[in-house]
Every structure is written in structure tokens, then in C-alpha cells.
Amino acid sequence: MPGFGLTMGMTLLWLGIIVLIPLSALFIRSVGLGPGHFVEVAFSRRAMNAYRLSFGAAMAAAAINAVFGLLIAWVLVRYDFVGKRLMSAVVDLPFALPTAVAGIALTAIYADTGWVGGPLAQFGIKVAYTPLGVVLALVFIGLPFVVRTVEPVLADLGKGIEEAAATLGAGRLRIFLSVILPEIAPALLTGFALAFARGVGEYGSVIFIAGNVPFVSEISPLLIITQLEQYDYAGATAIATVMLLASFLILLVINLIQGRERRRLGGI
Amino acid sequence: MRAATGEPRPVRAALILGALAWLALVILLPLGAVFVEALRGGWAAYRAAVFEPDALSAIKLTLLVAAIAVPFNTVFGVAAAWTIAKHDFRGKDFLVSLIDLPFSISPVVSGLIYILVFGMQGWFGPWLREHDIEIIFAVPGIVLATVFVTFPFVARELIPLMTAQGRDEEEAALTLGAGGWQTFSRVTLPNIRWGLLYGVLLTNARAMGEFGAVSVVSGHIRGETNTMPLHVEVLYNEYNFVAAFAVASLLAGLALVTLAIKSFLEWRHRDALAAAGH
Fold this sequence. Notes:
heterodimer, B: mainly alpha, 14 helices, globular
């Protein structure tokens, strides 16, 4: 096949200029800080609080998305009903809607004066400008990751084992828990990890609803921006490096799950 | 009698309603809120917000950035997919992982790395300043950050598609004496056009809507380096909610058009896209 040299050259050149050189700048800067200084700024009390919020909220949101994402994927694959195609298109909206737009819209709804925030406030539940608001924004952002990862696996699942289990007298719930769930668990876990990874680094949809109070409702990406605005390049670089390493780790886990799954299915 | 592997009717209805209710609450309600809030002040206020000079310059900048970033990443995506799908070489999986990298990096970190290279404190900062070249807090920086965050979309769409289509047709064309470019434009391109369109669409939506990465490198200079999402933020922080939601509604409209075309492609060209896993 012709064109290997040309296209490979273009790929490597652009990859280098756009992705690899700038990324290496981050690591080289971090190394330049020296281990003592790096640890001091990367794990300061304020940074630790921001990590706790970013990772904790992303974890909670991914868990919520795993439950409702599975429900939506199940309904889309297994049932026929009016408006199904529209429902499927709606699932992708968080992929297409700019994050800042999602952020201000969620804030308008869940503020004390909003459609949902108003009634909730009567019960003393505050969503906007609290860590709960962060979770809500990440639920919005992460939902399609779970649905779109689980959906194809659920669709490919043969009904043979289910029928066998039913013949042997197993109830519907038992079949779901002990036959279907184990089969789709790797996909569900991958969707969870993708939603989690996205949530950890998310910025646009979160900052409007988060309140952004240092130590309380300040996410790590915002802390990076705050430090940049104060010309604290060391702090910004160190925190960014920690977050980058965390996303590499999540990526590695996702690849391991998918690699194991491919081997289990006999390698495609 | 129901099938042994189906749920009873009430359970089925409850599950469907539950899924619909969740989608309405989490996704449709915010979407609706954008348009309701945008029109809260009536049509006149909406039009005024959209046609105001700063808004127009934000729209222009957003279009300009997309007009550079999208073709750039399209050419890259096609070249990368051609290399990866039509040739065998060692380290292919690793190369694919590298191309996917921007997907898993926080937008804020994506912006920061360009500051570290081109910013005042960055590697080339002093040199750029001597030669009067502005990248950070100027349009080139915004374009670079946008190219970074949309880098993998086209390649990721095309690689599985072209891998699944194999090399037989191209090899036949080459045997019959077609040149490399001719083979690509006459054989490969028609085969991948819907997948390509799909990738370009996603790239464009993300390019026009990117917020975090662009926010870091833009400097937020009104009328100069504010893209539409940044302009929305500025208006919102000034408590000018009607105007913020009016500009936001344009972006929401773009998202809806993108989804509509995507759904149409999936419905009309399901087979041509099937290999890409949609």
C-alpha cells in the first residue's frame, strides 16, 4: 500500500508538535521544581481538598451514571416503544452541548430560585453552590459514556443462556443478577471509568454551579486556573502533573479491562 | 403468555418510564432552560444580545477558530487512519493510544501546556516577545488549544472503519495501475465518506464549544479573544443572564443540529458506519 512514509510522517510530526512536545513541557517543568518543592505545592492542604472534591464527586457521579446508564441502555436495547430513536439521540446531548452552556443551565435550574432548586430549598436541600452541585454537573457530563459503552455489549448478548436459566426455573431478577450482569460487568466498569476520568478533569460545566469556595467547593482544574492568574506557575504545573498522572492511571486501568475482555472472548 | 426471557408488562413500563424521567430531569430540563432563560426578556432583548458588537466578534472568532482547527484535524485524521488501518508496523497500538491522549486530559491542563511552551514564562516566550509574535492571550493560542482538544475525533472515527473495510479494494485498484492518490480519492474516500463526515461533525461541535482549554490561553479580552463560550461566561459573571443565555442558545442550537445530522446519518447509513461501532 503506498503513502506509508508520507502519512506516517505527517502523523508523527503533528502528534509531536500538537501533543507530545507541549505535554513534555509539563513534565520537564515539574521535574525542574525538585522533589521537595513539588510535593509541597502539589499536596498542599488546599490542593488536597481540591483533589478530594474532584475525585470524590467524579466517583459519586460515575456510580450514579453506572446505575441510570445501565437502565437507559437496557431500555434502548431490549424494548420497543414510541420515541425510542429520539431518546437515543437525547443521550448524546452532553457530548454535543458546550460545557459552559450546560453549566449555566444547570445552575439556573438548581439555584434557590430555579425550577428544581426552589422546591428542594423548601426541604432545606441546597444543590447549587455546594459539592452536591459538582456531582450533579458531572452526572450530566458522564451519562453518555456509560450508555454508549454498555449498549453494544448488551445488544450482542445472546439470549441462549438466559433461556436456559429460565428453563431451569430461575426468576427474572435472579437471571439478571447472576447471568446478565456478570456478562456486561466489564463494559459497565469501562463506562464507569470513562465517566470518572472525564469527571475528574471537567471544568466548564462545574465552575458555574460549584460556588468555588477554596477548601470547600473548589475543584482541581479551577485551582490550576486560580494559580495561573496569580502567576504561581509552580503550583499550577505541579497540580496539573498530578492530574495528568491520575488520568494516565485511569486510562491504563481501562486498557487492562478491555484487554482482558478481548482475550476472554477469544481475541478479535 | 410472555416469553421466558422478557419482563412482565408493568415492570417493562416502569423501566421505560424511569429511563425517560431520568433523561428528562438530567438532560432535557437543562436544555429547555437555556431557551426559556434566553427569551425571558422577549425577542427584542434576545436579538439585541445576539447582534451586540462583542457578541458578533465572539461569533466571528469562534467560526474562524473552527475554520482552521477542523480542516487541520481532518487532514491529520485521514492521514493517521491511512497509516494505521492500511499498513502493518510495530507499535501500532501505542500510536493509537498517543492519538487518543487528548481525550483523557483535563481541558485546563490542555491549555496550561501551551502556556508552558509559548507563554511569557515558557520555553519560547522570550524569543516570541523579541520577534513580536503573540500566541498566548491571542488567536493563535486559541487555535492551538482547540486543535489539541479536537485532535483525536476524526482519526478515532476512521481507524476502526478503515480497518474493518480491509485493503482488498485498494490492492485491486493498485494492481489495475491506479496511482496512490488516485486509489485514495476514487476507492477509499467514497467508502469512508459518511464516517468522515461524522468525525468532522463531532470535531466541529467540540471546536466551537470548547471552554476550559480556550479559557486558559485566551486572556478574555472582550471583542478580541473571547470565543462564544467565553463570551457566555463573561456575560453570566456580569449578571447579564438574558444575554448570556441568548448567546448560549446559539451554541445549544449548534449542538441540536449536530445531533440531528448524526441521527440522520446513523439511520440512513447505518451499514457504512457500523464498523465504527455506532
